[in-house]
TrEMBL record:
Annotated InterPro entries: SCO1/SenC (IPR003782), Thioredoxin-like_sf (IPR036249), Thioredoxin_domain (IPR013766)
Keyword vocabulary terms for this entry: Copper, Disulfide bond, Metal-binding
Domain Thioredoxin stretches: 32-195
Protein name per Swiss-Prot or TrEMBL: Protein SCO1/2
Amino acid sequence: MTNRLLPLILTVSVLALTGCFGGEEQWHAKDISGLMPELEFELVGTGGQTVTPKDSAGNIRLLYFGFTSCPDVCPTTLTDLRKAVNQLPPDYRDDVTTLFVSVDPQRDTPERLGSYASFFGDHVVGLTAAEPELRELTKRYRTTFGYDEPDADGNYNVSHSSAVYVFDRSGKARLLLRPGLTTQQVSEDLAHLASESRS
């Protein structure tokens, strides 16, 4: 009985190892290669200047839509991304740029956005645009945003996606970071992506 089972056990083991190490790359995040368009935008930077992907060409780019008045999701996400980048090997830390795009242009002036983005590190770039341009950009990446009714003081919440889009050095969409990933898992994916595409 044991001799008959041994070949079966060996076969299953080989198949298991093949599934872990062979074939497609294994990512912690969702692989969106070929499913999303490349990185393309024309937005307003914190100094009032026009910013395009060319300004961070050659870097891994993390695209995240949010707003500075966000009470929890945005600061938590940006903090986790900073931790993940800080866990990268030193040679890769300067190779990652986080593009924080505010979908609340009415309140998020370039000055306010600049102060907010700088709190999360030197490699976080604050960007925004007029609402129609923001609608087009979020539609490009199959997401959206919305505004709640203002309260008596004029304050309102903004609904938006919590996903982070990861683009490689050439601007191709590669990964989608969704809630539930640890900073270590994100860091491992970024290190893998940085190492495979470093010139």
